[in-house]
Amino acid sequence: MSTGRSGGFVPPPYPYDLLDEARALAATLPGGAVDLSxxxxxxxxxxxxxxALAAATDAARSYPSSVGSADLLDAVCGWFDRRLDVDIEPxxxxxxxxxxxxVSGLPQxxxxxxxxxxxxxxxxxSYPSYAMGAEMAGCRSVPVPLDADWRLDLSAIxxxxxGRALCLWANTPGNPAGALDDLGAAATWxxxxxxxxxxxxxxxxxxxxxxxxxxLQHGSEGVIAVHSLSKRSNLAGLRVGYxxxxxxxxxxxxxxxxxxxFMIPGPAQVAxxxxxxxxxxxxxxxxxxxxRLGLLAGIMGDLGIEASLPAGxxxxxxxxPDGDAWGLxxxxxxTLGIVVSPGExxxxxxxxxxxxxxxxxxxxxxxxxxxxGRT
Length: 375
Known about the structure:
By secondary structure, the protein is α/β, with parallel strands linked by helices. The protein has helices spanning 20-27, 47-54, 70-84, 100-113, 129-136, 159-163, 183-193, 229-232, 247-260, 266-277, 280-302, 325-335, 362-372; strands at residues 34-35, 93-96, 119-123, 140-144, 165-171, 197-200, 223-228, 241-245, 315-319, 338-339, 341-342, 353-357. The chain folds into 2 domains: 15-32 and 281-372, Aspartate Aminotransferase, domain 1 (Alpha-Beta Complex); 47-277, Type I PLP-dependent aspartate aminotransferase-like (Major domain) (Aspartate Aminotransferase, domain 2), CATH 3.40.640.10. It is built from 13 helices and 12 strands. A 7-stranded mixed β-sheet has the order 2-8-7-6-5-3-4, with helices on both faces. Strands 9-12-11 form a 3-stranded antiparallel β-sheet, with helices on one face. Strand 3 (119-123), helix 5 (129-136) and strand 4 (140-144) form a beta-alpha-beta unit. Helix 1 (20-27) runs parallel beside helix 12 (325-335) and helix 3 runs parallel beside helix 10.
């Protein structure tokens, strides 16, 4: 934990700020930098969502429901049923302001629920907010090793850590490596030990190997699935997320979050209903991401760098030549004008790798292809 002179918490540097030198180098190329470091959606907001948002003026008048409007909760349940063959009730669902605030704030709320436990388990190579949420709650953050295919290795969890665990985080498809965990095994592991399993599923609509999967397909007891419309519907700016699962745990979280004042703005909830009801825009977006991943993997291959397509998500995760991630970052910035992230941003075990997000528009990626010598 980072501490100041008084022993208090000192926030570490925000990782992506460390890429400023690479951004400046990439910006010197004609046409400027193409930033592929952060998973920020770049494509248009779907028309059906924009129309709903524009017509939602009445929803801006009053305080919105913290747990989510009845329409939003019903829309979430309908989406789970259609896309994941999961039958849940509105009482098993709660709204969150995107998924990041929920992920980073959940350990503190769970610690209030069970002060006897102080440990957050999370994938050793993962989204930084799992570990940061533990640190901000004054908890132990214990990374769970991954296997050779970048999946959670549940057998590697020390039972002493399990006995102190507030929760186990899973992320499927995973960020950054795009792997697909055995969520049924994770749910069983948690139930056997009384540890809530929290499954971050924000990339579920971009599952390439097999059908989309959720921890809730293995029952709701002791588990929570966390979702967001940011990636699915290009709505990162509206901050519409939701969580669903164990009825008792969801009820607790909903009641605590009322006191915390967490509320998705009313118009954003209306837009969320429209987004969840429409699948055609998601299918179109999936085609875009898969095409872009293939293009980027081909460009890396032309440079002699192996980059396999992920099982899910919209990131390429690849080993840097000679393990020199920062050297590769500056090489890609100087030759292709792209900005990518070092694997160390996602945990020490990610060192020697880089992550490339397929989040530039097609014309910008065509520019990268042109710089690489592709026509």
